[in-house]
Structures are given as structure tokens and as C-alpha cells.
Amino acid sequence: MLNLPQNKKIILFDGVCNLCNSAVQYIIKHDEKDCFRFVALQSDLGIEICKTIGISYAKMDSIILYEPGVAYYYKSSAILAIAKEFGGIWNMSAFMRIVPIFIGDAFYDYVAKNRYRLYGKKESCLIPTPELKSKFL
User: How far apart are CA 33 and CA 102, in angstroms?
Assistant: First the structure.
């Protein structure tokens, strides 16, 4: 059984991807309700969560939003579910739900496939600052 914080949504991300790390920094900055926690997919906990929800880690090149005991979302569905938590102008993301998932996921897959070439890659996973350490599991 995983020991995850109660009432928090877990975002699993590629810890060596510059685009993913920028997205995590953006989410942290705008997470006014403090509802998200972050786990690198490459970490032991990231791999364990993937196993728990039945996603093959070997095939994982997506951001995952995991709500323990509720649901999980990946690819474009994860992006929309995360944006929904921000409120305000981000509620416009609900408009994007009229776009079929396969179209949103096709765009997501293109970016994911080319993310290292377009945005670069780190040698190791993000190390959070002491101020942000509580946001990472």
C-alpha cells in the first residue's frame, strides 16, 4: 500500500525533461489551493504509482494526474484536469473538452515525442529547493 498524502492530487512527470520541469514550476506557482504534490516518473515512488494504477512505466512518456482512490488522468486529459484546479481564466479549459480526446492526445503525443529535442534534457531529476521540498514526494 502506498503512503501518499491525503486529499492531494499527485502529478507524475518526467524528471529529466526541461519542458516538464518548467510545467511543474508553473503549476507550483499557481497552485493557490495547495492541492498538488509532485513525483518524478523515474523515482521509486513514481514507478510504484504506475504499477498501482496499471500503467507500464516502460511506455510512459506522459504527465499523469493521480487522485488516490478516485481516478487517474494522463496526456491531454491530465493537462485539462490540472488546469481546472486553477479556476479563473483556466476554467476556459473546459471549452477544450469539446475537442475529442484523440485529437488532444495526438497533439500531446507529438510534443511528448519531441520534447527532448525541442526543450532539452537534464542529466538528473529536478532537486527541489528547501522552500519547495514539501511539494515533492
Answer: 30
pLDDT digits (tens, 9 = 90+) for 110-136: 888 888 787 777 766 667 777 788 888
Q: What is the DSSP letter of 12?
A: E
Name the 3-class secondary structure at 29.
Answer: helix
Mean pLDDT, the chain, whole residue set: 84
pTM value is 0.84
C-beta of residue 58 within 8 angstroms of C-beta of residue 2: no
From CA 23, how far away is CA 111, in angstroms rounded?
13
The confidence score (pLDDT) of residue 36 equals 97
Burial class (CB in 10 A: 0-12, 13-18, 19+), 64: buried
**With b meaning 16 or more CB within 10 Å and e meaning fewer, what string describes 16-54?**
bbbbbbebbeebbebbeeeebbbbbbbeebbbebbeeee
H-assigned helices in the chain: 18-30, 44-53, 76-86, 93-96, 101-119
Report whether pLDDT(9) > 90. Answer: yes
Residue identified by cell 500500500 is 1
